[in-house]
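Go through this fold for my students:
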Amino acid sequence: MGKLDGKVAIVTGASRGIGKAIAKLFAAEGAKVVCAARSLHEGDHKLFEGSLTTTVSEITATGGIALAAQTDLSREEDCIQLVAKAREAFGPVNILINNAAVSYFVPIKDMTLKQWDTSWAVGPRAIFILTKLVLPDMINRRSGAIVNISSGAAIGPGRGPYKDREPSAYSGTKYGAQKAAIERFTQGLAEEVYQYGISVAALSPSQVVVTPGTLYFGMARGPNDPRAEPVELMAKAALLLVTEPLDKITGRVTYSQAILKEFGWITEARGIGIDRPGTGYSQI
């Protein structure tokens, strides 16, 4: 018996990295997983390897059930079609993992309006749209789980003066603002839907995760970067947040290793949430 037998889950950004790891683990635990991303086939993305076809083939090769749903989350009609495909293929949605993001690590003075708008559309805007679309299923069943993937970037640099500080290696102002917004949205939504038995949580890595994106932007040095954590820890933490009782996890803004250690899923932990505090929302 798997922890997610009989559940239907949508995982966005499932073509690579954290989303792929979550999709594979959820399928291994018995969920029927709808994998959403823009990259349907290998080579569709100009910079990164990974595709929905690869993710789904790896899931089905081990006996799991998954569906590829090519989706541009910046388009409302694509979000609507994604949820419709999930219902048509597998039935009402039990779990939503909002993982997808478009990242432009550019100083604000150099950022274009298109970059800003596209990034926010795939991030907070799509999270709102998808949440609205799956809530009727969850409300009707008086159960459900939503996990929004955040980031340590939501932790701001603090107040000035900054004259003695080295500028960050990359500019995460826009990205951090998005993630901070997602964390506030998470706690507000959790309060709103508690009456229906629906859990809502936000999850960030305790340490950097080595993905095609973090390698490209220089956030990780390589596959064996000692500062990094295995991507499987984020997948396990997401699984914890969709399976533990409502009152233990809803409204959490937490970090992978911190939550896993708290619930006894791992014995040792480090990084954000353990060695250093997270955002203000993680402490409320």
